[in-house]
Specification:
heterodimer; A: 260 residues; alpha+beta; 9-stranded antiparallel β-sheet; B: 166 residues; 5-stranded antiparallel β-sheet
């Protein structure tokens, strides 16, 4: 899509890609990596996103995962990424004490609540492995980052306010990943797996941690399970949760790095 | 051992006038010149940013370009084409002064169903905030989903192209 290249190496390379039903934006500090190589790495990262979309889309009835869900294909017939994602889903289900459960709903396994974070994390990993000094990849509100935006600085993410659209709830420092789910979203992943009904009581759920795949799934769990899920998130090494309840009160696991 | 703790002070409802954060990714979308430090958002930005986004299908003219602010004489506006985004259709209108976006509004929003309406009401102002705040420097991104972003960005880009910002 649109790429704006800057002349000076110190300025970030920016790119946006429309994929997975959302907009993914890249901010890349190439560092010692030549700009053409950084640009090529961004293209490879975008290819990773499109491939994930093609494999995991539950909207496209022809996608491998859609065929798996309908029982028209077995796991053994799936691309290797499917087994990896389902393994991560099992991990996330256990870590969240069942509040994230891609197997809870009728219609077959639905890893959607983890896949976007997993794919965006892989895109960020491509840039890191290519040798970029720093990058922030924002996949429709789920962020994966590495490095520093400038010497001595950290990536900062505004957490959108659940019902004040012209405001942010807070700002957090991002070491690696931050994901936010909220009742303003929709989709099967915000169904309470215990009741099969839309989740209630939670206005916004944010999880930070070392990988966006698990952070995305745990944010989904937190949106569904509220305070009970928050306790589970707090026990996952490296991950922290921040919850805004429907009544506007808040809770967190104690380790979220609030900036303001 | 971490313990869940309850706070009431964190939810500050930080106004974007104070935050004026940068969403660097949108810098790519909207193609703003990034060579010079961007000025902080002026009075026109946040004021316009709080306009309600719930209007449906008013008489927008996709691609139309017109002078918007008699005072100063340099403000220009353009409305992008109506774009489908999966749950409905949307068009975005921008106002610029020089190369700086001072307002982003949504003159056309046709959700397919009531729940989409709710999502749009909450998501679109966030997108607008990101575009406006992309011109300053304190945050690097906004966490929180918005399904409408694709159509929004397409229409926005077309509006920018109309104004020859790129």
């Amino acid at each position: 899509m649109t790429a704006v290249m800057t002349q000076a190496a110190a300025l970030p390379l920016a790119h946006t890609e429309h994929v997975m039903g959302t907009t993914v934006s890249f901010t890349v500090l190439a560092g010692d990596l030549p700009v053409p190589a950084a640009r090529a790495a961004v293209q490879r990262a975008c290819a990773v996103l499109h491939e994930a979309d093609a494999v995991f889309s539950t909207w496209d009835p022809r996608s491998p995962v859609s065929r798996l869900r309908r029982g028209e294909a077995t796991l053994a017939m799936m691309p290797a990424d499917v087994a990896e994602v389902l393994a991560l889903c099992r991990l996330a289900k256990a870590a969240s004490r069942g509040w994230f459960d891609p197997w809870a709903l009728p219609g077959g396994v639905d890893p959607t609540g983890l896949v976007k974070g997993w794919a965006v994390q892989r895109a960020a990993d491509v840039l890191r492995q290519a040798g970029a000094a720093a990058a922030l990849v924002n996949g429709g509100g789920d962020l994966a980052a590495f490095g520093a935006p400038a010497a001595g600085q950290r990536w900062r993410a505004g957490i959108r306010h659940p019902w004040r659209p012209d405001a942010l709830a807070c700002i957090v420092a991002v070491r690696a990943a931050v994901a936010t789910s909220g009742s303003y979203e929709r989709g099967a992943h915000l169904i309470d797996p215990a009741t099969g009904r839309p989740a209630g009581g939670v206005a916004s759920a944010t999880v930070t941690g070392p990988s966006l795949a698990l952070a995305d799934a745990l944010a989904t769990a937190l949106a569904a399970g509220g305070d009970q899920a928050l306790a589970a998130v707090g026990l996952v090494a490296g991950y922290e949760g921040y919850l805004i309840r429907a009544d506007g009160s808040e809770a967190d696991t104690g380790g979220v790095e609030f900036v303001s | 051992m971490k313990t869940a703790q309850t706070k009431t002070a964190r939810l500050k409802q930080v106004p974007l006038l104070v935050i004026t954060g940068a969403v660097a990714g949108f810098g790519g979308v909207i193609g703003l010149p990034s060579r010079a430090p961007a000025p902080r958002i002026g009075a026109a930005g946040p004021a316009a940013a709080t306009e309600p986004a719930t209007g449906s299908s008013r008489a927008a003219q996709p691609g139309a370009s017109s002078p918007a602010a008699p005072t100063g004489g340099r403000a220009r506006s353009a409305t992008g084409p109506v774009e489908n985004f999966g749950y409905g259709s949307i068009a975005v209108r921008i106002t610029v002064v020089g190369n700086r976006i001072t307002a982003v509004t949504v003159p056309v929003l046709n959700p397919l169903e009531p729940q989409s309406q709710l999502i749009c009401e909450q998501a679109i102002p966030i997108l607008r905030s990101e575009v406006l705040s992309a011109q300053s420097v304190q945050i690097n991104g906004v966490s929180g989903a918005s399904y409408t972003s694709e159509g929004y960005v397409k229409s926005l880009q077309a509006a920018l192209d109309t104004l020859h910002l790129q």
